[in-house]
């Protein structure tokens, strides 16, 4: 990962230190809209901002790793092959998974 960039805990994308504060509320709103459109059995709990260590020299790296793990936890595994997908993409994948 590039230095100075922060990872969104919702979508896992990288943003600049100033942009992340603008992106996260918009990303969470988009997440709610998409989650509400899913069938009830695929809906997920709202992602929470992860708690990262508050001391040490690698503070940004630890925060980014915690945010990345939080974003990855939002993915759902395919019952047949085990690959992980966003819920809206999982149904598309399952139609062709052998």
TrEMBL record:
The keyword Zinc-finger applies. Pfam families: zf-C2HC_2 (PF13913). Residues 4-33, 74-98 form the C2HC/C3H-type domain. The keyword Signal does not apply. Transmembrane segments: none annotated. GO terms for molecular function: zinc ion binding. This is Zinc finger protein 474. It comes from Struthio camelus australis.
């Amino acid at each position: 990962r590039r230095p100075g960039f922060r990872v969104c805990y919702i979508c896992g994308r990288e943003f600049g230190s100033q942009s992340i504060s603008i992106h996260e509320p918009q990303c969470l709103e988009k997440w709610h809209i998409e989650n509400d459109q899913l069938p009830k059995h695929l809906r997920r709990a709202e992602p929470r901002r992860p708690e990262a260590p508050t001391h040490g020299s690698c503070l940004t790296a630890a925060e980014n790793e915690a945010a990345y793990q939080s974003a990855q936890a939002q993915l759902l595994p395919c019952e047949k092959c085990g690959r992980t997908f966003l819920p809206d993409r999982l149904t598309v994948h399952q139609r062709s998974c052998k």
